Amino acid sequence: MTSKIKVDNIENQCGGAVVTKCGGTTTISGSVVKSNAIQASDGGNLVSQCGTTITLGASGDTINLASGASQSGFGRTGTVDWDTTPKTATFSAVSGNGYFCNTSGGVFTVNLPAGVAGAIVSLADYASTFAANALTVSANGSEKIGGNAFDVSLSTLGQSVTLVYVDATEGWVTTSDSSENIVGSEFICASVSGACNTLATAPCCANVKIATFTGPGNFIVNAKAVCAANNVVSYMIVAGGGGGASRAAGGGGAGGYREVKSPSATGYTASPLDGYATPANRITVPSAGSYPVVVGGGGAGGGPPCCEAIGAQGGTSSFLGIASAGGGPGNGSGGNPGPDSNGGSGGGTGPTNNGGTGNTPPVSPPQGNNGGTGAVSYNGGGGGGAGGVGANSSPSGGGAGGAVTTSSISASPTAYAGGGGGSSFYVTNGGPGGAGTPTSGAGGPGTSTTGANGGNGVVNTGGAGGAGSTGPSNPACGCGGAGGSGIVIIRYKFQ
After folding, report:
1. Which residue, 192, 204, 221, 402, has fewest beta-carbon neighbours within 10 Å?
2. Number of domains in the chain
3. Residue 406: what pLDDT?
4. Would you call 19 exposed, middle or buried from its count of C-beta atoms within 10 A (0-12, 13-18, 19+)?
5. Pair 364, 264 in one domain
């Protein structure tokens, strides 16, 4: 049975009021109310004491601090309470709090609180803009950060840090530092595969990566940029150069050359063949994934046996739908250029035959030029180059290979895709390779010595092979030079 005792007043043994009620007002008299437990109406403990241990709440309860209230004396476990309203201007941090800092509107400063042992503050890059607009962190007065009495800058994309004040010697110490932001990256995050292929930061620009493929491999996109414009990469794709022919023969055609410089790219000069103006030339990283890169090999020179032997076609290079055609092979004195001498740049030919057609298949801007003709005196024409047509032969010797083109996409000016020089029969004067400098990416020279082999194109430049020669005083025939292998370079911002 349940019973109730109802009173308006409770008195102590001396007759003094302990609890009194008057209307809607209840008064508790005295300065001290003593109890080992305060319970809710359901009998559960709100506050209880056992020995020297005081417990707030009971098992399963949630204890909330009222809005606007503050706490002290409870200590911390290394965590912070995050303020979910992003900061956009200079402010003073409070120990125990974390802040999302949005620098998209410009740089600003966070002032750390006074240095008290155990004080803790966390900061995070809200909009992934620290790389563009760094956040400055300033210690309080003469306090230190990492043992140094000066401000620090947070300038890494997606960076978040936690700082704990230790003592006057080191001041604020970084206990965690993350450069990952789960909401996505403002730029491409990538890697490369394949032996000898490299990925390096550009010497000119700390926010640019250069992926260089000298052989087959994959461009591995771990995350594409959330900003669509930053997914348009700069690139250069050069195919393998064609091999030179033998005996009064034509030089090989240079490997096809294609290049695009993204409008956001800085720190280098593209070649005159930059094709960004044509939308079909642009490469936009579609999504995270692994994308094959093909690097064409150089075509073999004609021979052995070397008399009347034509060279071989250079190999195609490609990446994400953009292909550069291999250089056309050089043809000999009795050869017929036909389709086999066509290519990225056309191969040169021997007497009475037309040089091979460059820019095959056709693209805009042209990936190469025509090869030269062996016009007279059994001398061969030069192969076409990316920067010019191969020269026709003359009574004095073989035609020069077509000129190179130059780009600094690799971080330094480099010549690519020179045509191979033609060779001679009756005279000892072979045509020079494209630009006449085989060490700078030109095609190999046609031989100037009867019976000698043509020069090789420079590897990883798409330079073509020069033609070999012969003569009445030396019936032996020189073999054509081999074309140089191609190269693929991809340049992009990573932060």
Report:
1. 204
2. 2
3. 94
4. middle
5. yes
Q: Verify that 441 and 302 share a domain, yes or no.
A: yes
Tell me the CA distances in angstroms from 395 to 4, 46, 243, 305, one per residue in order.
131, 110, 24, 26
Please measure the distance between the N-terminal and C-terminal CA atoms of the chain and give it in whole angstroms: 77
Instruction: Calculate the alpha carbon distances from 14 to 17, 22, 63, 64, 349 in Å.
Output: 9, 21, 40, 41, 129
At 237-295, the pLDDT tens digits run 999 999 998 877 889 999 999 999 998 888 899 999 999 999 999 999 988 889 999 99
Which 8-state DSSP code applies to residue 402?
Answer: P
Query: What single-letter amino acid sits at 435?
Result: A
Does 223 reside within a domain? no
Same domain, 458 and 320: yes
In a domain, 287, yes or no: no
Which stretches of the chain drop beneath a pLDDT of 50? Answer: 1, 180-184, 336-338, 430, 434-441
Residue 322 CA to residue 294 CA, distance in Å, equals 10
For residue 460, the model assigns a pLDDT of 95
Q: Of 130, 163, 178, which closes a domain? A: 178
Same domain, 265 and 413: yes
Co-location of 171 and 260 in the same domain? no
Q: Which structural domain range is residue 149 located in?
A: 81-178
Burial class (CB in 10 A: 0-12, 13-18, 19+), 285: buried
User: Minimal CA–CA distance to 487: which of 214, 193, 271, 211?
Assistant: 214
Which residue, among 473, 478, 372, 392, has the nearest Cα to 426 in the 3D structure? 473
pLDDT value, residue 19 = 63
pLDDT of residue 480: 87
Q: How far is CA 317 from CA 60, 292, 296, 297, 325, in A?
A: 67, 11, 5, 8, 7
Please state whether the predicted TM-score (pTM) of the whole model is above 0.90. no
245 and 170 both lie in a single domain: no
Structure tokens that stand for 436 in this block: 């006449």
Closest alpha carbon to 347 in 446, 243, 273, 485: 243
Task: Report the CATH number that the domain containing residue 161 is assigned in CATH.
Answer: 2.60.120.640
Whether residues 339 and 438 fall in one domain:
yes
Q: What is the pLDDT of residue 434?
A: 46
The whole-angstrom separation of Cα 280 and Cα 286 is 15
Q: What is the pLDDT of residue 394?
A: 81
Domain end: 155, 178, 201, which one?
178
Give the count of alpha carbons within 13 A of 181, CB side only.
25
pLDDT of residue 15: 67
pLDDT (0 to 100) of residue 354: 82
pLDDT given for residue 72 in this prediction: 58
Q: Side chain identity at 224, as an amino acid letter?
A: K
220 belongs to a structural domain = no
Gap between the Cα atoms of 385 and 365, Å rounded: 14
Residue 165 DSSP one-character state? E
